[in-house]
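Notes to self after the call with IL:
- keep both proteins in one doc
- input above output, always
- annotate only the second one for now

Protein 1:
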Amino acid sequence: MEINKYKDFWQKYEYKIVLAVGFVLVAVISFEGGILKGQKLSQNPVIIEKLIENAVPIENNSNSAVQGVSQSQNLPSEVKKSENSAIEQPKDCAFVGSKNSNKYHLPTCRYAKSIKPENRVCFSSEDDAKSKGYLPDKNCIK
């Protein structure tokens, strides 16, 4: 008698039970996939750079009063210089180091590009860097 109750229950609700179990399995798999993807993404930090939007020009130009002048033209010359100096490097800079570190890098290395211009130290050779107490970065220099 007891077995007939279970058979009747299963025949009546079979579709709903299978559907509910399927939803639970999909939810668990999606959750685990999200955790794995989140762990992979959390390894690389997000760097947000924000330009100065409401900077007051150091020198008053008559051109700055003209509407339609781009925002970068209204930036103080100090900001413009720091942006350009981050891109431009002296030609005798075979290796780059930081005042805050004891490592030196190739100028094309991603770590060298992240050094602030005011902290950048240029070396003409590896011997020059080593003589000043710097060590080669194992990620850039093999």
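Protein 2 (the one to annotate):
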Amino acid sequence: MNDRARYDRLLSDGRVQCVLCPRECVLKEGQRGVCFVRQARGGELILTTYGRSSGFAVDPIEKKPLNHFLPGTAILSFGTAGCNLQCCFCQNWNLSRSREMDTMGERASPERIAAMAKEVGCRSVAFTYNDPVIFAEYAIDTAQTCHTRGIKTVAVTAGYIQGEARNDFFAEMDAANIDLKAFTERFYKELCGASLAPVLETIEYAVRETACHVELTTLLIPGENDGEAEIDAMTRWIMEKLGPDVPLHFTAFHPAHRLQDHEMTPLNTLRRARTLAMRNGLRYVYTGNVRDREGATTFCHHCHAPLIVRDGYELIGWSLDAAGACTACGTPCAGVFNPPMVIGDRLA
């Protein structure tokens, strides 16, 4: 096991600077970065969570959420601890804000994770629960090992990463769901302790410069990022910079962590955002964290036939041919598909 971090520089005064993310933490001996897991030791940077997992689960890939990457398949999910954002609404705050190393209950080498995915019949492995960019070296090594066994890799990330680390990280990811948490600097600064611009740079880079399949998620929080003007601006930016085919998920907020005084997101808010995004030209827009069959269904952007019908995380209808095109009109659907897929207890 090699816990030596790769993205750092030694400064002239003996301190170590981490250059993984836009924070660029400068650390004295023994100090940890904002993420808590990258630590200065002996004039270099150490990834303290390398080879240690906070737990595993087998999930439907739709839970990530990914609707256009191997739909209907199982994915092995795991994470570590810590985060380089400080979101006051974090749904996994017990892991992302953890300062207790005993959160890391399981030893998990890249070889063990790849073997485990194979054993339980998962087509892919997800780096999730906390943001995998902070354990990029561990995620990269695991992804490379998974690929030798024919296992795909997925990152669930806020995209707060830069430079060489970003290039290396996305080069090994087959798919990613990137959180675009809002479309204002105020939101990122006040609610996340971060900045919007580096996230937009990461999204553009991943979509335009890599082979990684990308989907976006925005958690709509009442009164914070659910205004029509903001959603209009965000979806226009997506259309202009990324094109119409990047799937976008609007998901419902549930009170969590330090944001307990906000109500749950009404279904109508999600539906309104979806309608606005589609009016701005986006072809694949979804509602999540709610039961909404229409908002969960993939439709052909040409003839509007339902292509993949979902009830929660279960697929109940499949109308794509072997090439991933609409069986009604032949129009290709953007994504990575590999039928036949299991629909309930039968094959499509």
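Annotation: The CA atoms of residues 126 and 154 lie 5 Å apart. The chain has a mean pLDDT of 92.
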